[in-house]
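Amino Acid Chain and Its Fold in Token Form
===========================================
Structure side: the spatial fold of the chain, written down as a series of whole-number tokens.
Position: the record begins directly beneath this header, with no further notes in between.
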Amino acid sequence: MKPEHILQKLRIDSLNDMQREAAGAILHSRNDVVVLSPTGSGKTLAYLLPLVQLLDASIDEVQALVIVPGRELALQSDRVLKSMGTGLRSQSCYGGRAAMDEHRVLRQNRPQVVFGTPGRLNDHLDKGNILADKIRILVIDEFDKCLEMGFHDEMQRLLQKLPALQRRILLSATDAEQLPHFVEMGRTTRLDYLVEEEPVSGRVEIYQVDSPEKDKLGTLRRLLLQLGDEQSIVFLNYRDSVERVDQYLRQQGFVTSAFHGGLEQRQREDALYKFSNGSATVLVATDLASRGLDIPHLDNVIHYHLPQNEEALIHRVGRTARWDQMGRTFFLVGPEEELTALSNLPQSGEGLQHWDLTTNTHSPSGTDGEKTPQPRMSTIYIGKGKKDKISKGDIVGFLCKIGGLTPQEIGRIDVSDRYAYAAVSRTRLDALLRAVKGQKIKGLRTIVEPVK
């Protein structure tokens, strides 16, 4: 498939400068390539678009290995490749689920591209579930994190198992001081699109919100009320703090998703799906949500806890103002805190501004400051998927014919192997659940339940 057809399928008008230069370097030279570019600038597409042109769809073996630091980025990258409609097969592999189940799918799917975390990829290579003799291209996404000491030994063992490698492509939003020798980079093209001394995009408006109390819950509530139904991520530094803030906001009537490393995989996937499809207005999260998540339209990034270092700041704020959009970031500052610790805030635009909670003059959504905003959509879980021969069209038909919805009341639908998620109009949720209870989809009885 031609690149222009892929972009048309993805509904992308054109590539940005970084993506064009990265694609050219990967396609038109034999060099290894290092791409440094801010979060949200489209690095996944920057390497996937040329990569698919270098692989042979007629060879039923893994030809490219993409190493990522976590399961969310593995799943997201795999979804992007599948959405490109190139005919290449791919699979994501990561810890937290049975390796035998992944092996079974690898054997059935025969992928040409595998996205995975270092530990799980080592496991599959050791057992012969993935054969290394045809793997010519290695991509390390977020290489700064993959090559940290926590992954150091696993990465070294992994790269020693890839004797047929010809190309290495490394991508990150922050640079590494030095690449370990075992990466064995050859002649290298280095593309640096990072802007020095401006870790936060000039398209982001920056606000300080003063909290009169050390406990910022009340301040956070008032800010979210003023932001109305816009989508916001609230960042905290600890898992138990995420649980506490999420519980408080739910008690106040907000529809939220909680996201941190202590949750089960299904819980994390539910939380991200609810937020990304507009079924929740607030994602309460640790810095785990600051990297590798595809949330294309995010209005606000709120720092309940101040970021612990500049790298955390870069990745948090990089969730908003993606591509050419605008965004806002809010620092909640308690009576004993100072923003001077974040010395590298950008000076472009209006710089740091103060957000006045006593008025609604800043409020972009024109709310009255008291009514708790509600999302337009809700998410439902359907207990059948691709392995049951269920498609998006089948789900739309089921929701319309049996559930009584119109196509305009149905949002994003994602179909996995054994289940599916669908966004539906929030005001029609209860009637829908009553209508489909006990009903069959394509002759199969299934569970349909709300994702809470």
The domain at 204-354 is CATH 3.40.50.300 (Rossmann fold).
